[in-house]
Amino acid sequence: MKEQAVIQVGQEFPLTIKRLGINGEGVGFFKRNVVFVKGALPGEVVTAQVTEAKPKYAEAMIKKIRQASPDRVTPPCLIYEACGGCQLQHMTYERQLIEKKDLVIQALERYVKDLVPTIEVKHTIGMEDPWNYRNKSQFQVRQLGNKVIAGLYAESSNKLIDINKCIVQHPVTTHITNEIKKQLQHLNIPIYDEKNPQGIVRTIVVRTGMKTGQIQVTLVTTKKKMPHKEELVQFIRAIDSNIVSISQNINAEKTSLVFGETTFNLFGKETIHEKLGELAFDLSARAFFQLNPEQTEHLYNEIEKAAALTGKETVVDAYCGVGTIGLWLAKNAKEVRGMDVIEESIQDAKRNAKRNGYSNTKYVHGTAKEWLRKWENEGFVPDVLTVDPPRAGLDDELLKTILEIKPKRFVYTSCNPSTLAKDLQQLTKVYNVKYIQPVDMFPQTSHVEAVTLLELKK
Fold first, then answer.
1. Is 57 annotated to bind ligand?
2. Is it true that 11-67 and 136-284 share their CATH fold?
3. Is 300 among the annotated ligand-binding positions?
4. What does the buried/exposed string (b/e) look like for 267-300 if buried means 16 or more CB atoms within 10 Å of the residue's CB?
5. Domain locations in the chain?
6. Annotation-wise, does 319 bind a ligand?
7. Which among 79, 317, 341, 378 could bridge 326 via Cys, Cβ 3.0 to 4.6 Å?
8. Cβ(201)–Cβ(141) under 8 Å?
9. Active site residue ranges
C-alpha cells in the first residue's frame, strides 16, 4: 500500500477539484492527501499553493485557474473575499442548489454509509431571487483610529470588516446600522474593544419585519449607563419612521455570544410584529426567528407535509423558540406542546398562540429532555415530535430520551448536515428515514437546511 506523500507549506501542484466541502471550499486529492482549496469549484483544474499542511489534509489557495468551471461567475459583492460571510457568490445559483444536495449526501456517506442507497435526498428548494433576504443584521462595532466601524470579522481572523452595503441583507438593516455608527462617532460614545475595558457599545442589531415593515433596533453594550443615551435614542428614532422598538442589551462578558441576559426597552414597544403565512408573531429583541422569512414558509410547509397531521395527533415542538413551527402545525393537530430554554421566547410563544387564536397549545420553559421525560411520566407521549436544533444537533441525553419514548413520527429539521447524519447513526436504530428534503435558507453561503422524516420501525 502506497504511503501518503508529505505535503509542505508553499508547495505548488495542479489539482482537479472533485467536490464542494462543507464550508464551501473545493476538495481535491494530491498523492493520497485531501486538499481543501478556498474559492475552487467542482470540475475545475487549478494550480494550488499549500497554505497549511496537516497530517491528514492540507489547505491551499488558488495560484492559477487552469480550467474554469462553466458555473463560475463574478461575485457581485465588492468585499466578498475579504468578508467571508458568503462562500458561494462565485458560483451560479442553479449550481449552488445542486451542491447543497450533495453536501447532505456527503454527510450521510460519512456517518451512515450503509443506509445511503435507501435514503431519498430530494432536490434543494431554492429562491426565485436569492438576494437581500436576511431580515436581521448583527454587526460588531469597533473603533479604528477616529472612525467607528461596524461589520463582520474576516474569516479565521479578529480583523473586523466595515460593511456599508451587504447584498444578502435587507437594505434597511445596513442603512440603519450605517447611520447609527456615524452618530456613535459624532457623539464620541466609547466603543468596546477586548483591550479597552472602558468601551461600552459592542454590537448593533437591526431586525425588520419583511411583511409588516416594522423595525427593531438593539444596542448591545457592556453596561447600562451610557453617555448621550437619550440623544442617541432620539437620533435612531428619526432615521426611519418604521422603527417601533429600541432596546439595550447588557453583555459584559468576554464571549463570542452577541446577547447578554438583561434587556431594557429604550423606546416604543418591546416587540415588533411579523407575519409568516397566515400567522402573526411578536418578536422580542433576543427571540429567535428565522432570518429568511420567504424560505421559512417553504421550510415550514415541508415540515407540515412530513408531519402529515389529520387533527387527531398530539405534537411536541422541541426548541420551540417563539412558537413558529408548532403554531404552523396547530391548525391540524389535536394538541401542540413546546419548550425552550429562553424564558422570553416562551412568553412570546404564549402570546403568539393567543394572538393567532389557538387554545390547543402549551408552552413551557426548560429543556426538551426534561419535559419529554416529565410528560412521559404523566402518560403523555407525542404522536409527532418535531425538532429544529442548533448547529450542534441533538445532545446525547435528548437522543437517548427520544429513542426510549419513541414518538411514532419524528420530523428533524437540521441546519447542519454533519450533525444530522451523526444523529441519524443513533436514530436509525429505531427509526426508518423516509426522505430528506434540503431547503436553501441562506443563498450564496455554504449552509443548507434539511427536513428529515423518520418513522418508527414496525
1. no
2. yes
3. no
4. ebebbbbbebeebebbbbbbbbbbbbbbbbebbb
5. 11-67, 100-128+288-456, 136-284
6. yes
7. 317
8. yes
9. 415
pLDDT per position in the chain (458 positions), as tens? 555 668 999 999 999 999 999 999 999 999 889 999 999 999 999 999 999 999 889 999 999 999 999 999 999 999 999 998 999 999 999 999 999 999 999 999 999 999 999 999 999 999 999 999 999 999 999 999 999 999 999 887 889 999 999 999 999 999 999 999 999 999 999 999 888 778 999 999 999 999 999 999 999 999 999 999 999 999 999 999 999 999 999 999 988 899 999 999 999 999 999 999 999 988 889 988 899 999 999 999 999 999 999 999 999 999 998 899 999 999 999 999 999 998 888 998 999 999 999 999 999 999 999 999 999 999 999 999 999 999 999 999 999 999 999 999 999 999 999 999 999 999 999 999 999 999 999 999 999 999 999 999 98
Domain 11-67 CATH (choose: 3.40.50.300, 2.40.50.140, 3.40.50.1110, 3.40.630.40): 2.40.50.140
Residue 388 marked ligand-binding: yes
Collapse the DSSP code of 204 into the 3-class scheme (helix H, G, I; strand E, B; otherwise coil) and give the result: strand
Tell me which amino acid residue 79 is. I
* CATH for 136-284, options being 2.60.40.10, 3.10.129.10, 3.10.310.10, 2.40.50.1070: 2.40.50.1070
